[in-house]
Amino acid sequence: MELFSCSARLAKGALGIPTRMIRQIDIENFALFRKTRIGLGPGLNVLSGESGSGKSLALDSLAAAFGGRLSQERIGPWGEQARVRLHISLDPADPHWAPLADLGLEPDAVLIIERTAGRDGRSAYRAQGQPVPAQIIRSLGESLIQYVGQNQLLKILNRQYMLDWLDQYAGLEGLAAETKTLYGAYNKCRRDVFELSQLASALSQLDDKRAVRDELHALKIEPGEDDRLTQELARLRAGRTLIETGQALYQRIDGGDGPGLLAGLDQALHLAETLARYDAGVNNVVKVLQDAVRAIGDARLEISVWMDQLDLDPVRLEQLEARADALSRAKRRYGPELSDVIAYLAELNQEISRLENLDWELGRLKAKQNKAWQAAAEVADRLSSARQDALKKAQRELTERIREMEMPTGEIVIERQSQAMTESGVDMLDVLFSASRGQALKPLAKVASGGEIARIALALAVTGPARGDTVYIFDEVDQGLGGASAERVAWLLKRLGRSAQVLAVSHQAVVASRAGWQLAVRKRAVQGTTVSDIEPLGENQRIREVARMLSGSGDETALQHAKTLLVEGQGD
After folding, report:
1. I need a surface site. Which of 34, 169, 206, 295 has the fewest CB within 10 A?
2. Residue 32 β-bridge partners
């Protein structure tokens, strides 16, 4: 017999590869696990082992990796912190990469997430080795994992989950998505109407706003005007200094009451020319002095022209100072910079225009809101009607499923109530459950045991279209079952594994025999400390483990029975 290779062929062939699956779990210093690795495959994976070996603890580590509660008691004695690392197959185009890509992580075919938790109560999360916010990992877990365990918060007790499940069951995802989109459009219109209505209180200030606008318009402010004004004022205010200094400079060059710079240079040039007539070695001096006379002559001309054009009109100074004061007041009130005043005027113009057209705009938006509401309500009503049509069939199928799992008179009723429209429509669903004939139907969360809830979750998972984007975790879903009921649970788990990855803790040999992959949890004593390990089982190991699950012993009868069970389990 080629039991294990047959299992592998089944996983890669008939099962297909789920769009999302956990490939590997590394556990360090968590509860009884010092350091162990769990390799998982597609389809049905079963954890088996003796009671108390740590099977459920292994599942707890998986929940903890996705942000579940990790108490101090779960940190092992081999260090100051516990660590759980997951390798998850995730298509690079999967939308769950988006928040990680925003943090700079490059999408890949495998996502590696890790959580560490210390005795000081602090936790840290990483993705691809980089620190990430806990909420990103929790959101991934909420979308990826359907966990059904004795002490876990169950999605099936969540009303929104049941709505999503019913929409998937009845093929209403498109109608549900349209309802969500149209309700979102209505909600935006409602917010716009509210915000515009808030402006109504500002109508009493409209005249004041117009006065401010008119005041600023009258100033005719130009960008950068204050800087140019400051420069011109500085020049005008220094008028006396400009005149006196300019005159002194002109006199120093031209001479005025005494010899000037230009006259002195003329004398020096005359002397140099006299020397040059007797000695050519002075020619260069003559040239330098000639250039100097020309340059100083040009300077005298330019200072003369500048003084003739100098405008120091005191009236102009007064006008500019008044303008500067006006701009300064505007900047104090609406600035601090002149550019801020200009921007404020533009905003004020828009606000006044909106206020002047408030009634018309508000009427337009309210009409748009009403139209959006009608569109959303029409689609929500169609969705609600389709949901109601599907409810009876859905609850009948679910009831049939649970009756196959040692609840022969059990009953499930999905009760619908109307509610104010939300993005999910106008329906609210509650799951009512009765375990026995004559027992009143009551909310599932109040009357079902952990094992019953687990089997109902299995029924939900296998009823309706299969999904490959969820990893299903079942902790002892077959607890207390036997005979045909255990057979049925095993068949349903294997059926679910044909489209999605399933990880189940089981004590039932018939369940283990149908798994594509089986791992055994072993507990042993090491230097006075209890340690658990997890090992994948090959063909012979698996036969012995199934034999133990059948009879608690490994005698020849149990081994033969185990071989037969495995052949049947891998074949159907």
Report:
1. 295
2. none
For residue 234, the one-letter residue type is A
Q: State residue 466's pLDDT score.
A: 66
Output the six-digit token pair for 60. 């707890």
Residues 180 and 225 in one domain: yes
Q: What are phi and psi of 78, to 5 degrees?
A: -105, 15
Could you tell me if 148 and 475 are in contact, meaning their C-beta atoms sit under 8 angstroms apart?
yes
Is residue 160 assigned to a domain?
no
Three-state DSSP state, 80: coil
Mind listing the pLDDT tens digit for each residue in 420-432? Answer: 999 999 999 988 8
Q: Residue 90: beta bridge partners? A: 20
Alpha-helical regions (H) of 463-538:
483-497, 509-513
Residue 250 lies in a domain: yes
Distance, CA of 116 to CA of 129 (rounded, Å): 12
Of 239, 243, 236, 208, the residue nearest 324 (C-alpha): 236
Domain range enclosing 44: 21-149+470-537
DSSP three-state, residue 86: strand
Q: What is the pLDDT of residue 379?
A: 96
Helix spans in 37-127 (H): 55-65, 98-101
pLDDT band, very low/low/confident/very high, at 87 (cuts 50, 70, 90): very high
344-374 burial: b if 16+ Cβ within 10 Å, else e: bbeebeebeeebeebeebbeebbebbeebbe
Q: In which band, very low, low, confident or very high, does the pLDDT at 8 lie, cut at 50, 70 and 90?
A: very low
- C-alpha 451/C-alpha 455 separation (Å) is 6
Task: Check residues 384 and 200 and name the one with the higher pLDDT.
Answer: 384
| Phi (first) and psi of residue 155, to 5 degrees | -65, -30
> Does residue 270 sit in the same domain as residue 311?
yes
From 571, 454, 432, select the one nearest 502 (Cα to Cα). Answer: 454
Say whether pTM exceeds 0.85.
Answer: no
Single residue among 381, 405, 431 that ends a domain in this structure: 381
Asked if the structure places residue 568 within a domain, the reply is no
The reply to whether 133 and 245 lie within a common domain is no
Does 212 share its domain with 361?
Answer: yes
- Strand pairing of 110-118 and 81-90? antiparallel
Considering the domain architecture, whether residues 313 and 186 belong to the same structural domain is answered as yes
